[in-house]
Amino acid sequence: MALFAVPNIIQDLIPAAASESINPWTWNLNLNASGLYEYLPTMHALSKFALLGACAVQSVMGLPESVERREANLLKRNVDDWINRETPIAWEKLLCNIGPDGCAVRNQGVPAGVVVASPSRSDPDYFYTWTRDAALVYKGLADAFRRNYTEDLHTQLKNFVSSQAKLQGVGNPAGGLNDGQGLGEPKFMVDLKEFTGEWGRPQRDGPPLRAIALIRYAKWLVENGHKAVANAQVWPTIENDLKYSAQYWNQTGFDLWEEVPGSSFFTIASTHRALVEGAQLGAVLGKPTRAYTAVAPQVLCFQQSFWNAREGFVVSNINGGEWRRGRDANSILTSIHNFDPSAGCDANTFQPCSDRALSNHKVVVDSFRSIYNINRGIAQNKAVAVGRYSEDVFYNGNPWFLATFAAAEQLYDALLVWKAQGSIAITQTSLPFFRDHVSGATVGTHAAGSATYNQIVSAITAYADGFIEVASKYAHSNGALNEQIDRNTGQPIAAPDLTWSYSAFLTATARRDGYIPTGWGAGQATALPAGQCQKFEVAGNYNLPPTPVFPSNLTPAANAPVEQITAVPTGCTNPEKVFVTFNERASTSWGQVIKVVGNVPELGSWDVNKAVPLSASKYTSGDPLWSITLPIQAGSSVQYKYIRITNGVAGVSWEGGDNRAFSVPGATCDIQNRWDNWR
Ligand code: NOJ
Ligand code: NOJ
Questions:
Q1: How distant is the alpha carbon of residue 279 from its chain centre?
Q2: CA nearest neighbour of 347 among 286, 310, 390, 306
Q3: Confidence band, pLDDT 50/70/90 cuts, at residue 15
Q4: Nearest-10 Cα torsion for 205, 206, 208, 211
Q5: % helix / strand / coil in the chain, to the nearest 5?
Q6: Which residue's C-alpha comes closest to atom 11 of ligand 1?
Q7: Ligand 1 pocket test: which of 394, 400, 402, 493 has the largest number of ligand atoms within 8 Å of its C-beta?
């Protein structure tokens, strides 16, 4: 199945003089049973030997710089070679895990467009579909598709849209689609039935990540003249996920590693991106976007509170999970998945080249240097195997392939932006990161062509390649990638053929290859709101997406883009709907929910089944505050009451007294606040 061409690897970094006569990667290629080639694992011994030889000769001649140069060239060639071999394998094996025809999952009840996390059915059982894994994998596929159109990949993307439209309607232990809560369910059976076992739920990164993946494809449709298709077939699914993001972003949930309930940096940043990019696409499709544009800056505001300025890293989990020290690949994944060069090296959006993200890269990578035996004795300026977080005990706590690739990807991203802007800025915050690699680096802006700039570019290129080399060293010799790498032996362990591992390889190496995915409007979304962060949550109404039907003529336009998608709408002018925040103080016990119901359609027209749930995200024992924001038709005369619902169903109790009443003003952009106490 040769669906994809192996990308050309950039050769421009090898100085001509460096060409060596020995090729340490003289692989023996053999076709194995599954048609994949295998190579002999002797390459490392060989390359190390060649390297030692080269060093010895050079130091006798007293030319230490050339030793470095030689070492870097050798590293680059080794990495080039491995990438060239691994790329078609990673493509093939990634697609093997997608239904219905993927080679590892076919005839096993996996519908089209469903990503199985790993074919492994025991130790660990990963034969499920996780919304996060699927979304990240499809985000990568959509970017690859935008780079290089193929019909097969197009079919995969359409399948993904259809599978997710259906999945959104599947009721599950996290809830249903009615109030959106079911969208926070982390995983499903591969046939899209609910998974009823105990699990860390909800996980609130799933909906924004899925929105981001679907938006990538919807943008392609718009740019290629198929806007009506984006509108009718893709937007309904995107919209549910965006509404979820705008409604539930300030409620705690489990982190991406499914272990700690709280607020997770990755989840918050993914939510920010989804809201911004959703507004960007929604504006082009003529959809209401104000909920997204109003909430997005507040999410970005909250995102800043994860930063530990004193130690220069992102505390990945707050409001829970503090028993971990917070140094976590969570944050490195955030920087690569929110990469957008239009934001330059912006720190608020945690761009890969921002001073914060680079300082964080160092702190997170360093946290793994001494804890894994396989990293022992590796110099501070060299790449090591990277795990999830140092306190991890899952399979004894090990390095992960996807985290190691992510560490490389962040650096490739940074290099792309530095080269594009022709300079590298070093601040006090990022100085320790740079000093590890260029000991004489100083705070300031170093222009392309300066000695410091050149030294940094070569050192960081080699450092980034080092992470790929580390992964290559521990990969199976036939190119297969597991989830983890044994911390003592270096053996690939835990879930075999983890789909996300292949995706992480492909996205990191695409960046190395110079491919920058289309942006998400980050450059227009870096500003923080004035004053304190406000944590309002906007209630959404959720609708089961119609079964997508794709016309057969969805081909690329000859003169694409026929329509540019750039502007991110801001604020609001003359809105038909006015945002009203209902704040109700009501002491409740576990399992009880406060809802608001009233005479206008937005408040359910007095139907308790359509009452709008308030959020308890600001509830404390000292201040039992429930609140929710929702758009109501300007000029409406509203009557309403709060109800208390116990354990979901039967028990509805109404507030006493007369109906509460107020008039919604005419079109205004100011949020109207109702402050009430249960009576
Ligand atoms: C526990 C692990 O730590 C977590 O990350 C994983 O998702 C679950 N087990 C399921 O494998
Ligand atoms: C465990 C990881 O912690 C989680 O992020 C992932 O979604 C599942 N495994 C499935 O790959």
A1: 18
A2: 306
A3: very low
A4: 160
A5: 40, 15, 45
A6: 124
A7: 394
